[in-house]
Amino acid sequence: MIRRFGITERALHWVHATGFFAMLATGLVLYLPALSEIVARRNLVKNVHLFSALVWAIAIVLVVVLGDRRRLRDDWREIETIDGDDRRWLRGRKAPQGRFNAGQKLNALVTSAFALLFVVSGFFLWLGERDHRFLFDGTGTVHEFLTLGSVGLLVGHLYLAVIHPSTRHALRGITVGDVREDWAREHHAKWVEAERRGL
Amino acid sequence: MPRGSHGSSSDSVRAELQARESSGREAGVPPGHGECDLGAIGLVPDGRDGAGDPGDHTAELLAGRPGREQRLDAEHRTGLLGDDLGRLARAHERTREHEDGWVGRRGQTLTERSRLPDPLCRELPELVRLARRSLRVAAEVDQHAGDRSRHSRSKARVRKTGYNVGMDDRTVGRAAFLGLVGVGVAGLFYGRDATKVVGGVVPSPLKEIVPTSGWRIYSIGRELPRLDPSSYRLTIAGSVERPVTYTLADLRALPQVTQVSDFHCVTGWSVYDVTWKGVRFRQLLAEAGVRPQAKALRFVSAEVPYDDTLSLPQAYAADALLALEMDGKPLSVPHGFPARVVMPRMYGYKNVKWVSRIEVQPHLDTVGYWEQRGYDEDAWVGASN
Questions:
Q1: Which of A94, A142, A190, A193 to mutate to test the interface with B (most CBs of B within 10 A)?
Q2: What residues in B contact A124, CB-CB < 8 Å?
Q3: What are all long-range contacts of B30-39, with beta carbons under 8 Å and residues at least 24 apart?
Q4: Do A35 and B375 touch (CB under 8 A)?
Q5: Which domains are delineated in chain A?
Q6: Which of B314, B313, B316, B335 has its CA nearest to residue B326?
Q7: Residues B251, B234: contact at Cβ < 8 Å?
Q8: CA-wise closest residue to B174 among A31, A64, A109
Q9: What is chain A's Cα-based Rg?
Q10: B383 contacts: CB under 8 Å, gap ≥ 6
Q11: Any bridge partners for residue B270, and if so which?
Q12: Which residues between 96 and 115 in chain B have a beta carbon less than 8 angstroms from any beta carbon of chain A?
């Protein structure tokens, strides 16, 4: 077994996941006419949605502030780095991968950009209702496209994490924290090599 | 001297080395000097470059880029490529020490300085061989891995993660992240109603459930009011001469008007060119007879506890009406069947659906459902909350 994710990383992942599902559920009720008609009670659903957003944002900040920031910074550095191996990997060729493979990096980059944009567009949706000067043309559009994009990402993410036989062992990394060394060697060769050298 | 362009630095340096070597031979450099003349084989700059430590210039030429980066790179390559380069680095270090001392002693011109004293002359061919070798290796890496040779600039990162991490590659991911954020923020201002696009993207079985028409259905109760058209009654009461109760058939018998207007929601979406058919409020209130002290109309929805108000002048606006039809058909249940308020110049929350009762009020004090929750009473589009 080899240690893959520390407590901070796992907390960040699951806080984000929980908040996302709460906001997705309430958001879809607010967004889809069919669901709105079934569930109705718009004010209640809206308040739950806004409350979830607030709790989610605070929890994310708390995890970052109280958690292992050095580790998170290292993660982000690696995620930002799309190197030659990653680009080959993305073109469908075989290339050794680091602790995050190129797909995971892209997923993380897009997810974090989306999270930021969700916050910005959501804030202006909230503010625009209260002051029309902040009611921009595209705020709702952006929020909707983010939702559609996120659901797309989520479907792929869940498939690879839960169903796809060769990758689903990764789920253990984000729940328990460690993964089998042979699996890691196959999927994240550069990372295992670096760990082995004690770097 | 090749500098600046990092991408093909190794190749161009190699070319330069060959070019200078051959031109040196053609120029008839004496064989005795050939081996010792660094200028002739391109390892030091000619005098034009002026001041500077020849050692540093040698280093620059070896890698074709500024000294500091080159040193980091050399250190990293030393680790990556093994003993050859370690020897090169050590030999190069000795060259510098030697030269520094020598230059200090003599203080000659650069061209003269490039003629090194004998001990180093003996090492020079080996030094050049190693330089070639290092450049050739670097060039091969370049060919196979694009810019892997550039990955190694940040020594600290390499030490930290153990595999190639450099600023150039970080820029790729960071640019993707920032670009996405930038597009999203720009979308806030330039985005338009996406429902048509969504309608085009979403597969047809899902079309029914996503808002492809532009409308969102906002309701506050547990379920939408489904009013039976035969038992539906609209009561008009309050500051009127005679309270009146209309059936749906009665309402349809009143003078009907048709108008095309836009619908704006306070949450930011709009539906354009909606065709409404219904009764102007002046006609609707004519039979009941509005008393002189009347100031406002309170519309009570069958969706309890939703209500909202319009002042009498607002209700009498030329484009306000109680709509019975939308886009040529009777209102659907989600749009307020059988009757709803249409006040196009105010946000949607003033456009009460499932209207079951109209109270004519002698005051303007009644606060509507959403106004109690922070929205403006006078919900003019673009001029309120």
A1: A142
A2: 188
A3: B33/B115, B35/B121, B35/B124, B35/B125, B36/B115, B36/B116, B36/B121, B36/B124, B37/B114, B37/B115, B38/B114, B38/B116, B38/B124, B39/B111, B39/B114
A4: no
A5: 2-197 (1.20.950.20)
A6: B335
A7: yes
A8: A109
A9: 19
A10: A132
A11: B264
A12: none
A 95-134: CB under 8 A from B: 98-99, 105-106, 109-110, 112-114, 116-117, 120-121, 124-125, 128-132
CA distance A156 to chain B (A): 17
> Considering only residues 37 to 56 of chain A, which have any Cβ-Cβ distance to chain B shorter than 8 Å?
37-38, 40-43
- Chain B residue with the nearest C-alpha to that of A141: B194
From the number of C-beta atoms within 10 Å of its C-beta (0-12, 13-18, 19+), residue B27 rates as exposed
Distances B149 to A71, B6, B61, B89, B125 between C-alpha atoms, Å: 27, 10, 16, 17, 25
Of A31, A137, A194, the CB nearest to B161: A194
Helix (H) or strand (E) holding B298: strand B296-301
Q: Is B196 on the interface with A (CB under 8 A)?
A: no
The reply to whether residue A109 touches residue B172, judged by beta carbons under 8 angstroms, is: no
User: Whose structure tokens read 């899902």?
Assistant: B206
Q: List chain B pLDDT tens, one digit each, 385 residues.
A: 434 444 444 555 555 555 555 554 444 444 444 344 444 444 444 444 434 444 444 444 444 444 444 454 444 444 444 455 555 556 555 555 444 444 434 444 444 444 445 555 566 667 666 666 665 544 444 444 444 444 444 444 554 555 555 556 777 888 889 999 998 888 888 766 555 566 566 665 555 555 656 777 777 777 788 999 999 999 999 999 999 999 999 999 999 999 999 998 887 778 889 999 999 999 999 989 999 999 999 999 998 889 999 999 999 999 999 999 999 999 998 899 999 999 999 999 999 999 999 999 999 888 898 888 888 888 888 777 6
Distance CA A75, CA B323 (A): 58
Hey, which residues does B307 pair with through a beta bridge? B300
ipTM (interface pTM): 0.87
Rounded to 5°, the CA angle B359-B215-B221 comes to 50
